[in-house]
Amino acid sequence: MLEGEFTVWAGENKVVLDVGESFFIPPNTIHVVAALSDKPARGLVVAAPSAFAQLIEATGTLNENEKTDLELFMRVSSEIGDETLGAPGDIP
C-alpha cells in the first residue's frame, strides 16, 4: 500500500491493508480488492506471470476522468483466462 487502505478478500481471508503492507494472492484464487474509505487509495500490483499486467495495459487508462471500456475489459479478461464472478464493485 502506497496511500490509504484497501480491503482484500481472497479465498477465505479478509485483510485490511494499510500503508507499507502487502498481501499475496495465489494464482486461481477468487478475490476482490476494494478501496472502501473516503480517502484516496493507491497501491502497487506485481503480477507474475504477467497476464494481469497484459489486461491492465490493454484496458487501463492514465486519465482518471476516462471510463474503462467494459466490453474490452471482459474480452481481454476472457482471453487471459481471468473470470469475472460479479459486477464491478461487488463486495463479498
Characteristic terms for this protein:
92 residues, alpha+beta, 2 domains, 3-stranded antiparallel β-sheet, 3 strands, globular
Give a description of the structure.
With 92 residues, the chain is α+β, with helices and mostly antiparallel strands. It folds into 2 domains: 1-40, no CATH class; 45-82, no CATH class. It is 22% helix and 15% strand. The chain has helices spanning 51-59, 70-80, and strands at 6-10, 13-17, 31-34. The chain is globular. It starts with 5 loop residues before the first strand and ends in a 12-residue tail after the last helix.
Helix content: 10-25%
- Taking Cα atoms only, what radius of gyration do you get, to the nearest Å? 13 Å
Count of domain modules = 2
- Our estimate of the beta-strand percent is 15-25%
Low-confidence stretches: none
- Summarize the biggest pleated sheet: 3 strands, antiparallel
H/E element order: EEEHH
Shape: globular
Report the span from N to C terminus: 21 Å
Structural class: alpha+beta
Spatial sequence of strands, sheet with the most strands: 2-1-3
Q: What's the number of helices? A: 2
Average pLDDT taken over every residue: 87
